[in-house]
Amino acid sequence: MAVRMRINGAAADQVPALDRGLAYGDGLFESIRFVGAVAPLWLRHMRRLSESCERLRIPAPDAAQLWREALEVTLGMPQAVVRITVTRGVGARGYALPASPRPMRVVAASAPPQVADSAYVQGVRMRVCDIRLAEQPLLAGMKHLNRLEQVLARAEWSDPAIAEGVLCDSHGRVISATMANLFAVVDGVLLTPSLDRCGVAGVARAEVLATYPQTQVGELMLDTLLGANEIFLSSSVRGILPVHSLCERSYAPGALTRQLQLHWHNLGFSMEQAE
């Protein structure tokens, strides 16, 4: 199925060449999983989008309008991923902010990625990426349009058996996977990296933290991750994915991973396994 798209509310598939999102990556995006006409994490996505717009000083779009447009582009689709892109809009050449910005919004729907049932049951294979994430606290946590670090990280391997890569910062601290947040159970304690210097604070991560408030958020080094009892990834699009191997280490999906998969299933994401 082709991508269905609305640009500023109208059916279109092209953006102006002078849009600042294209020129400078001056914007944000959200990738939202829909099941029919339901998006279980919609409010979390809207909260992150609004907060990020405020941080970047981009006028936030109206959430009710985004919802109407999302329903239009997903009409008749049993499963979909809606990407909402918000840019600062067309501007004059140069980095200075426009005095009166006119943001552009793109709402596009496509079929969700194919993930084998075995990935949810047995887990996925990962590697450690060579690229290191740059630290910029002013942008940390946001899902801004500059994803070049993730693009280059994903270009490091072509083996289809490897589903994801671990990203670290310049100090060797584990931050995330290329397309997901990362959690590890170490000596019975659930850990996830702090994202106050770099990385994307995913809405699925927020849901896990709300569901399991005992989670310790802080510095996570690679040696600690490798010594974990269980590792899993969280993604608003793919859900809760166990990790079965990393750097020649093997892991089995544990009780906490299964508990969170069940929670994901109960949210309404019926495609994901919850065994």
What would CATH call the homologous superfamily of the largest domain? D-amino Acid Aminotransferase, subunit A, domain 2
Shape: globular
How far apart the termini lie comes to 30 Å
Radius of gyration equals 19 Å
Q: Tell me which oligomeric state these chains represent.
A: single chain
Number of domains: 2
Query: What is the averaged pLDDT score?
Result: 95
Summarize the helix and strand pattern as letters: EEHEHHEEHEHEEEEHEHEEEH
Main sheet makeup: 9 strands, mixed
Helicity level, as a percent range?
25-40%
Segments where pLDDT lies below 50 for 5+ residues?
271-275
CATH topology of the largest domain: D-amino Acid Aminotransferase, Chain A, domain 2
Q: Compute the number of strand runs.
A: 14
CATH architecture of the largest domain: Alpha-Beta Barrel
Number of helices: 8
Molecular structure report:
The protein is an alpha+beta fold. It has two domains: 4-110, D-amino Acid Aminotransferase, Chain A, domain 1, CATH 3.30.470.10; 117-267, Alpha-Beta Barrel (D-amino Acid Aminotransferase, Chain A, domain 2), CATH 3.20.10. Helix content is 26%, strand content 30%. It contains eight helices and 14 strands. The chain has helices at residues 20-24, 42-56, 63-74, 117-122, 148-154, 203-211, 222-226, 255-267, and strands at 4-7, 10-11, 27-35, 79-87, 104-110, 124-133, 162-169, 174-177, 181-186, 189-193, 216-218, 230-235, 239-246, 249-250. Strands 6, 7, 8, 9, 10, 11, 12, 13 and 14 form a nine-stranded mixed beta sheet that branches. β12 and β13 (239-246) form a beta hairpin. The two termini are 30 Å apart. Residues 271-275 have low confidence and may be disordered.
